[in-house]
Amino acid sequence: MTSERPKNFLILKETGLLRYVLPEFERCFKTEQNHPYHVYNVGMHILETVSNVENSSVLRWTMLFHDIGKPVVKTTDQNGIDHFYGHPEESMHIAEKIMKRLKFDNKTINKILRLVKHHDRRIEPHYKSVRKAVSAVGKEIFLDLLKVQEADKKGQNPKFLDERLDALKKIREIFFNLEKEGQILSLKDLALNGDDLIAMGFEQSKEIGIILRELYNIVIDNPEMNTREKLIETVGNIKTKVIKHRN
Q: 1, 108 in Cβ contact below 8 A?
């Protein structure tokens, strides 16, 4: 996968060997994509994206797997336009089976599955959208996700490429600005933590995690709330909601 010629997969297809090596990938070449954003069948699109991503094992395998579930979920509307609703989840399911079959280590499996899951996530080039995306995806793999999305777009209709690459560039800049400004990007960036809640009298239990997640969601939408004083004020309301939900 990290060779300089990833399109050599076509040799396996042309010789008929691909059906024995990766049958899940072989059927992608039989799946057309009649859609304004696409110009290749699923198999050729995948190979284009593999060729366009950074030469890293995790990223190359992510691109190979990112649309591998499309043949399973394909539908065509009354206008003849193809759709692939739910393909990230189906691709994750297939990718996990393949990676376990090929004896991938668990750490690699988990990272690739997270990237496949979020590869089609819509991220707008503004602060709130980027904060929410980082929250959902994970700060530690967010830049890799942008590399995946860039490769994906380079394998689609070139008519839309410049605009979409420009949006990704702005998203990347916003991410770096958020880091530089110290804005919250993960749970550990909260001004309040589990030890603080225990010191406030909360028992060590799963409810602490629920409360921290609720605080995190509030701060994602309102970064100015990420001060110790404001979060302590908010904890009481969240605790009441958690208790009501439990009962």
A: no
Q: Hey, what CATH topology would domain 6-181 get?
A: Hypothetical protein af1432 (1.10.3210)
Per-domain boundaries in the chain: 6-181, 187-246
- What pLDDT was estimated at residue 246? 54
φ, ψ for residue 184 (rounded to 5)? Answer: -65, 130
Quick one: 144 exposed, middle or buried, by C-beta within 10 A (0-12, 13-18, 19+)? buried
Q: Which residue has the tokens 């110009």?
A: 39
Nearest Cα residue to 186 out of 145, 123, 131, 112: 131
pLDDT of residue 236: 77
* pTM (two decimals): 0.86
What is the pLDDT, as a whole number, of residue 207? Answer: 83
Q: How far apart are CA 164 and CA 158, in angstroms?
A: 10
- Exposure string over 76-89, b if 16+ CB within 10 A, otherwise e: eeeeeebebeebbe
